[in-house]
Design goal:
Layout lengths: L2 H8 L3 H17 L4 H18 L3 H15 L4 H23 L2 H4 L5 E4 L1 H9 L4 H13 L8 E2 L8 E6 L2 E8 L4 E9 H6 L1
Parallel strand pairs: 1-5
Antiparallel strand pairs: 2-3, 3-4, 4-5
Helix pairs in contact: 2-3, 2-5, 3-4, 4-5
């Protein structure tokens, strides 16, 4: 695989990567007699496409199934495993797409509230992680763990963990196409509000 192709893969969202994996699974079934093609394609799926998924749990499940069919000799077993992977991917893909109303299309305006700016100063040792989490929220619009619906005082908002005990609370205004960074707070403060 060329460096250019790998760069293109690096910027794909999970939804796009899953669509590519589905395409290649279909190609494997079409070329079921070509063991070299199957092994090379499965290896690419395992080491390149799955490794790019931000949902590491899903990547691990898909990798496990790919590893199983790499060990198989029977065409029927390979076909059955590709279909099993397809079912897993389609369920995950549906779940990913349900997030679209909250964070898609990308915001035209991004606002940091005074509280957010003040909170940022309270956590100097986590500032790089906070900035990375902000970037991840914007660049991975389908990643479930970055866009969790909030409860209690923060109903209508979304949140993402920066660390195990630190999170960002934000509001996605789809109609106004703006994202408002509301607060950075410890999990205990968030749960208590």
């Amino acid at each position: 695989m060329t460096k250019e192709k790998m760069t293109q893969i690096n910027v794909m969202s999970d939804a796009e990567l899953l669509e590519q994996i589905l395409y290649f699974l279909n190609e494997i079934r079409k070329q079921i007699k070509n063991k070299i093609f199957i092994n090379q394609t499965a290896t690419d799926l395992f080491y390149i496409y799955c490794n790019q998924l931000t949902d590491k749990g899903l990547a691990w499940i898909i990798k496990g199934r790919i590893y199983q069919f790499l060990k198989l000799e029977q065409e029927e077993g390979i076909i059955n495993l590709t279909k099993e992977i397809e079912v897993i991917i389609k369920k995950a893909h549906e779940k990913i797409l349900t997030l679209r109303p909250f964070i898609y299309p990308p915001p035209k305006t991004i606002i940091k509230t005074p509280n957010y700016i003040k909170d940022f100063g309270k956590f100097p040792s986590n500032q790089d992680q906070i900035l990375q989490t902000e970037k991840d929220i914007l660049t991975h619009p389908f990643q479930i763990k970055l866009h969790k619906p909030s409860k209690g005082k923060w109903v209508g908002h979304l949140h993402a963990h920066v660390t195990k005990n630190l999170l960002i609370v934000y509001l996605w205004d789809k109609d106004g196409s703006q994202l408002i960074w509301e607060r950075i707070m410890k999990h205990t403060e968030f749960d208590g509000s």
